[in-house]
Design brief:
The protein contains 8 helices and 6 strands. The chain is of the alpha/beta class. Keywords: Oxidoreductase.
Length: 194
């Protein structure tokens, strides 16, 4: 028996990776499931990389070992590229069709990567690409992209969608509950359709 279902959520500072991991943790509490999590923030406040490790039903530590993640949820194409080595051979990648080019690329006059070349590099993985910005705008707020991505990945997470949606209600500010539950449902529909 496998000890845990391991989810790595990656993005850059301000994209809401920690909130997304908190929603999964809250859904585990709702279902009375064991959960362990850890975040690394780096230079998050300056647009740096952020990673959130979530281990459902795990008996051991909070950090996921590279090559063992069951699910990688990437809020940015470059972060998907950077963390793809965490996926297991049977792992699944759900990625936002969004690309933030790091400032040093411009400062050092380097060629900026493009969406097509990144997706070509990721093509050998079990991949679903979502335009979270479009769905977040449809839900009513561009800032709900993280919840769109969680909805898109929800079919892969071994928790009931109702538990995840209730966890969204509990974790987001009260004035944004309607927008975020709509974002979750739109993401879930889009993820199921891919």
């Amino acid at each position: 028996m496998r000890p845990s279902f391991d989810i790595l959520i990656v993005g850059i500072g301000g994209q809401g990776t920690v909130l997304a991991s908190n929603v999964i943790g809250e859904a585990c509490i709702i279902e009375n499931r064991s959960v362990r999590s850890a975040e690394t923030h780096g230079m998050a406040q300056r647009g740096g990389s952020v990673e959130s490790h979530v281990r459902i039903d795990g008996r051991y530590g909070s950090l996921i070992v590279p090559g063992t993640a069951d699910l990688l949820i990437a809020f940015d194409l470059l972060e998907a590229l950077r963390y793809r080595h965490y996926l297991s051979a049977s792992g699944r990648l759900i990625v936002n069709r969004h690309l933030v080019v790091p400032t040093p690329v411009y400062q050092q006059g380097m060629d900026a990567p493009d969406e097509e070349s990144i997706l070509n590099t990721l093509a050998n993985l079990d991949l679903t690409c979502i335009d979270a910005a479009e769905l977040a705008e449809e839900a009513g707020n561009i800032l709900s992209q993280n919840i769109v991505m969680l909805g898109a990945a929800s079919a892969e997470i071994p928790l009931r969608p109702e538990s995840l949606e209730e966890a969204v209600r509990r974790c987001v500010p009260p004035k944004t509950v309607d927008v975020n539950t709509t974002a979750f449902r739109l993401g879930r529909e889009r993820g199921a359709g891919s």
